[in-house]
Design brief:
Order of helices and strands of chain A: EEHHEEHEEHEHEHEHHEH
CATH architecture of the largest domain in chain B: Alpha-Beta Complex
CATH topology of the largest domain in chain B: 2-enoyl-CoA Hydratase, Chain A, domain 1
Largest sheet of chain B: 8 strands, mixed
Structural class of chain A: alpha/beta
Strand content of chain B: 15-25%
Structural class of chain B: alpha/beta
Distance between the termini of chain A: 32 Å
Helix content of chain A: 25-40%
Order of helices and strands of chain B: HHHHEEEHHEHHEHEEHHHEHHE
Strand order of the largest sheet of chain A: 3-5-6-7-8-9-10
Bound molecules: zinc ion
Shape of chain A: globular
Oligomer: heterodimer
Largest sheet of chain A: 7 strands, mixed
Distance between the termini of chain B: 57 Å
Largest interface: A-B, 66 and 53 residues
Number of strands of chain B: 9
Number of helices of chain B: 14
Radius of gyration of chain B: 21 Å
Shape of chain B: globular
Number of strands of chain A: 10
Number of domains of chain B: 2
Number of helices of chain A: 9
Radius of gyration of chain A: 18 Å
Helix content of chain B: 40-55%
């Protein structure tokens, strides 16, 4: 199946090189979780999931897209937006430059339309490799535009989060992207359209505290770290060790914060089934 | 309440101590130092005006957290009447880090919500230093919907270091509780006015701050991250908060420029903590005027404008 291919989906822009993030080049890879040395091809055939321990490797947005949408259906909406160092913030320009080089992206999110199980959707996928998936003006704007597109075209909206939170380098305007994206999803709800939020490792801070937790349905990949405050900050604050499994997807499911945990290989099928539910009049 | 002085206020503190000494001396004895005292008073006023006219962002951050600064309940008492506090989120607990209730502004019923810090050590602990847990935000959410149900304007006061980073807070969905408020406030079918009275600490502050009008007191701050936290990330050194505050653009004046704040509300010379009564008078005027304006806008337009207001925020290049 074409999903296993490493190439970017054809309709993605051609400016970006193919990228592998946590899995280095070579025949063998070491699992971040169980530390087993695994045959690389086996991992790739398995949706970038460790066949030994089911660890879901962190993957880029363009690697993820083919796992989510119908083959060849993704059409990127570029928006023509790029970030601006309007505060003249220390090292921001350099960080943007190196992130651009590393990922081939202009900012930490890919936006577009696609079909899943034949159902048209607007979809955004965040990329943690671009400055930790942090949300600044461009990320907020692209997500908001995608939601507005969904309202205009009367399609469901799907957001895949992977983020350390709001982007410090754009100061208060990054914080305001939380309000902006949340307000947009509120309008989507008002329009009676479904929003499916998918949380991937890691999802934190201002992204958790805005659009990512507002889905009509919230799905997480197994073992995904999800939280508002980072575990180190919490540990320093409460001066005690955190329990095992704290802030993992399984922990959130147990505490009633998400609807379900779905393996990467089952995500497309699950989404298709959910969208089928919404498509019936 | 004992006056506390920040580092850069020390010269003022010294003058005031001298005035106090001379006053004591005069009242106890033979020499009349009235003229001398008057002169010193003048000098100290001048000094204060001077210091407060050229505050650095970091100094402003310190004033926004000044231990003598008026808090939400102080402003409620000074500006509103007939306050009836409401408690609890109806699901888990009552969070004293947020206070809510009904009140009247010049006879007009309003609903009020605000972060609340404590003054004494005991109060500080009780109020969790103004850092809410999810139940605080959910109490606020309940009261927002209460305002909507009874068609009363909503006033919110922002003054928090941030949402509490605790184990229980995560278990109970701190992120969701903030996100929900952002979404609900953006569509709330009543006029909403927010005032940043002290410290606007990130998402925990924003959770009460999606509004038709956002006012900031002259020496209040609002930031995506605390200057200390930012310095720790940039230089691995929290004590460089001074420089971080400069970079982040956190002052009321900066936020007015960035179009996040609609108005900067003047404080008395020397800050709200020097003259809380006057600070409340100035704020009351600003609240009444702004509320009258937004109450005049038809509801559908108001909600559309509120969306557009937040929709516009962000700076980027576009091809
Ligand atoms: Zn493994």
């Amino acid at each position: 199946m074409a999903w296993f291919k490493k190439e970017r989906p054809e309709k993605l822009g051609s400016e970006a090189p193919s990228k592998k993030v946590k899995i280095p080049e070579g025949l063998w890879v070491k699992c971040d979780n169980c530390k087993e040395i695994i045959y690389r091809k086996e991992v790739e055939k398995n949706f970038k999931v460790c066949p030994k321990c089911d660890y879901h490797f962190r993957i880029s947005a363009s690697e993820r897209l083919p796992f989510l949408v119908d083959e060849g259906s993704f059409l990127e909406v570029e928006d023509g937006l790029s970030p601006k160092d309007f505060l003249n913030f220390k090292d921001y320009k350099d960080k943007l430059k190196s992130s651009r080089k590393k990922t081939g992206l202009k900012d930490a999110v890919i936006s577009g339309e696609a079909r899943i199980g034949g159902h048209p959707v607007q979809i955004v996928v965040m990329d943690f490799n671009f400055m930790g998936g942090s949300m600044g003006s461009v990320v907020g704007e692209k997500i908001t535009r995608a939601v507005e597109r969904a309202i205009e075209k009367k399609t469901p909206f799907i957001a895949v989060a992977a983020s350390g939170g709001a982007r410090m380098q754009e100061g208060i305007l990054s914080l305001m992207q939380m309000a902006k994206t949340s307000a947009a999803t509120a309008r989507l709800a008002d329009a009676g359209l479904p929003y499916i939020s998918i949380l991937t490792d890691p999802t934190f801070g201002g992204v958790t505290a805005s659009f990512a937790m507002l889905g009509d349905l919230i799905i997480a990949e197994p073992k995904t770290l999800i939280g508002f405050a980072g575990p180190r900050v919490i540990e320093q604050t409460i001066k005690q060790q955190l329990p095992a499994g704290f802030q993992r997807a399984e922990f959130l499911l147990e505490h009633g914060m998400i609807d379900m945990i779905v393996s990467r290989k089952d995500m497309h099928g699950t989404l298709a089934k959910v969208l089928e539910f919404f498509s019936n009049a | 309440m004992a006056q506390e002085y920040l580092e850069f206020e020390k010269p003022i503190a010294e003058l005031e101590k001298k005035i106090e000494e001379l006053t004591l001396f005069t009242s106890s004895g033979n020499i009349d130092l009235e003229e001398e005292i008057l002169k010193l008073h003048k000098k100290s006023d001048q000094l204060r005006a001077e210091i407060y006219s050229r505050l650095s962002p970091w100094q402003k951050a310190q004033i926004s957290r000044h231990p003598n600064r008026p808090y939400t309940l102080d402003y409620i008492e000074a500006i509103l009447t007939d306050f009836i506090e409401m408690h609890g989120d109806r699901a888990f607990a009552d969070d004293p880090a947020i206070v809510c209730g009904m009140a009247k502004l010049e006879g007009m019923p309003v609903v009020v919500i605000g972060h609340q810090k404590g003054r004494t050590t005991k109060e500080k602990i009780f109020r969790n230093f103004g850092m809410p847990n999810p139940e605080g935000y959910r109490k606020a959410l309940r009261i927002m919907r209460f305002a909507e149900r009874f068609n009363k304007p909503l006033i919110t006061f922002i003054d928090t270091p941030g949402a509490y980073p605790g184990l229980g807070a995560e278990e109970r969905g701190q992120g969701e509780s903030i996100a929900r408020n952002l979404a609900v406030m953006s569509q709330l079918k009543v006029p909403v006015l927010t005032v940043v009275i002290g410290e606007g600490g990130s998402g925990g502050a924003l959770a009460l701050g999606v509004a038709d009008r956002i006012l900031m007191l002259e020496h209040s701050t609002y930031s995506v991250i605390s200057p200390e936290g930012c310095a720790a990330i940039l230089w691995n050194n929290g004590s460089k908060a001074n420089e971080a505050a400069e970079l982040l653009k956190i002052t009321a004046q900066d936020l007015f420029q960035l179009k996040v704040a609609d108005e900067v509300v003047e404080e008395p010379i020397g800050g709200a903590h020097r003259d809380p009564r006057r600070a409340a008078e100035l704020l009351k005027e600003a609240i009444s005027r702004n509320l009258a304006e937004i109450r005049n806008i038809a509801l559908p337009d108001l909600i559309q404008q509120r969306y557009e207001k937040v929709r516009r925020l962000g700076m980027f290049d576009e091809l």
